[in-house]
Amino acid sequence: MADQLSRVFAALADPTRRDMVARLTGADHTVGELAEPYDVSLQAVSKHLKVLEDAGLVSRTRDAQRRPVHLEAEVLDLMTAWIERYRRRAEERFARLDSVLAAMQDDAEGPTQQEGTAS
């Protein structure tokens, strides 16, 4: 799992590949369709797709003469679970820090004295 997670994060480190993944969330696309908005060759887009494919983020299928690229969303679930685990840990640490700071503030203010004095 750790090796796949490393490949996924490395693949998504490139903004072009992140954009391709974002576009694939809407629908499958051919290499040509994916290449349209970029000022790069089809070969460069194919290389990007190979990196995404090696990371398990996309797969290519055959549909008659088309070879659509499909997003493998379950890999995103793997990333989300990993991120969520550490997000929860960070939130727990911040909650403990908030408690410590609140206790320190209470100690700094000291005990409150009642108004008036007994005669």
Oligomer: single chain
What's the number of helices? 5
Report the helical percentage.
55-70%
Radius of gyration over all CA atoms, rounded: 26 Å
Residue windows where pLDDT falls under 50 for at least 5 positions? none
List the helices and strands in order.
HHHHEEH
Structural class: mainly alpha
How would you name the CATH homologous superfamily of the domain at 2-73? Winged helix-like DNA-binding domain superfamily/Winged helix DNA-binding domain
Mean pLDDT: 87
Please report which band the strand proportion falls in: under 5%, 5-15%, 15-25%, 25-35%, 35-45% or over 45%. 5-15%
Look at the structure and give the CATH class of the domain at 2-73.
Mainly Alpha
Query: What's the arrangement of strands in the largest beta sheet?
Result: 1-2
In the CATH classification, which architecture of the domain at 2-73 applies? Orthogonal Bundle
N- and C-termini, Cα separation? 75 Å
Please provide the count of β strands.
Answer: 2
Q: Would you summarize the structure shown here?
A:
This protein has helices at 2-11, 15-24, 31-35, 42-54, 73-109; strands at 58-60, 69-71. With 119 residues, it is mainly alpha-helical. The N and C termini lie far apart (75 Å).
